[in-house]
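Submission sheet (multi-component)
Chains listed below:
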Amino acid sequence: MKELKIFLILVIFTGIVYYGVEPYAHSQMQESVPHANFDFEQEDKSFAKDSLAKAEAELAEKKVAYESNKSDSDLEKAFNNAKEKVDYIKAEIDALNLMWTNANVVMSKKGDSENGAAAIDELACTGCHKISVDDKKDAGYALNVTGFINPDLSLAGKIYNEKFLAALVLNPALAMKNNHKFNDENPHPMSALMLEDENGKINDDEAQKVADMIAYLKEVAKKADAKYEEEAKAIMKEKKVEDGAEIEKFVNFYKEKQAFLNACARCHDMRYDGLNNNLVDKDAFAKYQEDGTGNHMLEYAKNKADLVAYMGSNPPDLSIIIRARSTDYLNDFINNTQKLLPGTAMPRVGLNKQGQEEVMSYLEKVGDSKKVEREDLGFKIMIYFVILAIFAWLWKTRIWRDLH
Amino acid sequence: MANFRKSTGIVDWLDQRLAINKFVKVMMTEYWIPKKINFLWAMGVILLTMFAVLFITGLLLVMYYKPDVNLAFDSVNKTIMQEVEYGWLWRHMHGVAASVVFLVMYIHMFTAIYYGSYKRGREMIWIGGMLLFVLFSAEAFSGYMLPWGQMSYWAAMVITNLFGGIPFIGPDLVEWIRGDYAVGDATLNRFFMLHVCLLPIVIIGAIAFHFYSLRMPHVNNEISEELDFELEAEKYLAGNKKEAKVIAFWPDFLCKDLFYISLFMIFCFYLVCFHFDFAMDPINFDPADPLKTPPHIYPEWYFLWSYEILRGFSYEVGLACFGIAQVIFFLLPFLDRSDVVAPAHKRGAFFVWFWLLLIDMIVLTIYGKLPPVGFNNTIATIASVTFLALLIVVLPIITLMERKAK
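Outcome: structure written.
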C-alpha cells in the first residue's frame, strides 16, 4: 500500500513535468493554425480573411503608437508599412475572389478530353510542358532560364485538385501562392493565358476550353498511372520477385514516388532515395538538355545555383523531413505554404487529398522506413518483459518466503 | 607459494587461485542490506542497468558513426537508422535510455535527500553520486552533439559560449574548448573523444567509487534506523532470517530488483518503440545549419532547471548563479546543520522544505522550456531566487533550529 502511494506520487510528478515540457511547451512555441482544407477556394478565402484581420489589428496598434508621437520617423514608417500591408491583402482578396469565380465557371462546364488535346495545342502548353506519356516530349530542353524544369503534366490530372488546376491556368502565381514574389517587372515564368475579358471575367467559350484541357489531363493521368504500374511490375520481374505481396508493395511505392517526383522533386532532393542533384553528372545533363538522350532521372535534375537564386534559399532535402516535422505540420504546410511559413518561396502545388497522401506515404517510406518493424518489435519486446516480470516475481516470492 | 591441493572441482580450482568464494561472500551473499526498504531502493540497480544499455548500444553505434561534420548526420540517420540491421533499435534505445537515466537519477537523488542518506557517515556516497550526476551531464551533452542536427549545433554554440563570461580567461577558454572560433568539425571530433572514451572511463571509475563508498556506512533504510549490521548478520547466518533486520545482496535484494527492472523495461521499451519524441526531438532531424538559427533553442529536459536559472538574471549574474547551481548540491551534507537522521515526514520543517524544493525545480524545468517572454521572465527570476534561497539560506536555518530543538 505504502509503495503504491509512493509510486503514484512519482507518476504524478513525472506526468506534470512531462506535460509541461512536451505538449504544453510545444503548444506555446508554435501558433496553432486551422488544419488543411482540400477545398482550395475555401482555404484561400478563410486564410486571407484571417490574415486581413491580423493585419488590421496590427495597423490599429501602429496607428495608436504613431498618433502618440508623430515626430518619430520609425513609428511613421511602421504605420505606413502596416497600411500598405492591409491594402495589399485587400487587393489580394479581390484577385482571389475573381480567380475562384472564374474557376467555378470552368468547373460548371463538362469537359471533353479530345477537345482538350486540341486546346492544349492551341494554347501552346507543350511549348514549356512535357506530357511524356502522350508522346509530347519536346518541351523543356532549352527552357532552363530560371534554373527550373517546368513540370511534366502526365500525372497532373491525378494528383492535383481539378478546380485548383483551373485556377492555376488562369492565374498561376496567385493560385500557387507565389504572388508575393512576382510583379509586372518580374512576371511569373508561366505566362498568363489572357483568357479573361477586360473586367477580368472568363467567358463561356474560354471556360469550356479550360474544362476540356482538364478533362484531357485526367485521361492522360490514367494512362500515366497504368504506365507506371507496368514499369514497376517489369522491374519486379527483372529482379525475379514472385511474392504477390512484395510486388504490390513495390508497385505502390513506385507510384507514390512518381507523385513525389512530379510534385516535389523539381526543387527538393531526396538523397536517401538517390535523388541528389549534387551527384548528377553536369555534362550528361547538358547533353540531355540538348538532345534528350540519357538517364530519365536527369529530368529532375536542376542547376542548383540557378534554383537557389530563383527561390532565395536552398529548398531543403526531404529525406528525413518526416521525422523533422509532425505529420500534422507537413499536411497543413503542403496544403497552404503561407500559413505556416509566411513569405516562403515554396509554391502551394495544389495536391488533392489522394495525391498528398501518396506524397506523405513516400516521405514516410524513405525517412522512416523501419516504422512497421519498430512497432511490431516493440510490442514483442514489451511482452517479453511482461513474461520476465512474472518469472522474476515468482522467484522473488520463493526467496522471500523465508525472509518476511 | 601458498599451499595448493588437488581441487575438488572447477569452483574449488578457481577459489584456490582467485579466492572467488570469499569474493562472492563479500560482494554478494554476505553483503548486508537493510530489510525495511521500498522500491525506491531499486533505483541504483536500475541506473546500472541503464548505463549497461547505454554502453552496449553505444558500442554498436560507434561501429557505424562517423565523427565528421559532413558525414555524421547521414551516418546516423541513413546508415544506422535505415541500413544496419536493427540499427534503429540501438539508436532509439541509446537516445531514450539517455533521457530516462536522468529521470531515474533525479528519483534516486531525491530519495536520498528525503531519507537523509547523505548524512552521518554517508557524505562520500552523496558526493560520489553528485559527481556521477555531473559526469553523466557532460556525457549527455557531448553525446547530443554527435548526430550533428540543428539542436546539436546550436545548443553547443549556446553552452560553449557561456564560458566566455568567465572573467579574464573567458574568450580564450571558449576557443580552447571549441578548438576553433566557432563550433565546427574540431569541436565535434573532441566531443566524440569525450563521449566515447574519456567520460565513460571516468564514469566507470566513479561508479566503482560510489559502490565502494557504500560499504562502510551501509545502505540506508526506510526509517533511517541505525542498524548493528554485525548483530543482524549473525542472526541471518544463524538461520533466523525472519527476525534479522538485514537481507543479503544476492539473492534477496537482487531478486526483487530483477522484478522492478522487468517492469521498468516494459515502460522503457514502450517509449523506445512508440513514444520517443521527448528524447529524440524532431528539431534535431534537421541537419546542422550554421546560417539558420532555430527560433527556439533549448537543452534536453534534464538540463532545463539549471538553464532557467541561467536565464533568470542578467548575463553575469545569471552565469554566476548557473555555476553555483551546478555545485550547490555537492554541499548538501554540510548545508544540513542538524544531526537528525530520519525520513522527511518525521522532520517537520524539513518535510515542507523538501516539497518546496521539488516543486520549485519542477517550475524551473517547465519554464526553462517556455519562450522567455513576458511574465515567464518574472517567474524565472522568482523561481531561481527561491532555489538558491532554499538551499543556501533556508536549509541551514531550519536544520540549525532542528538541532537546537533536539
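Remark: Chain B has a mean pLDDT of 94.
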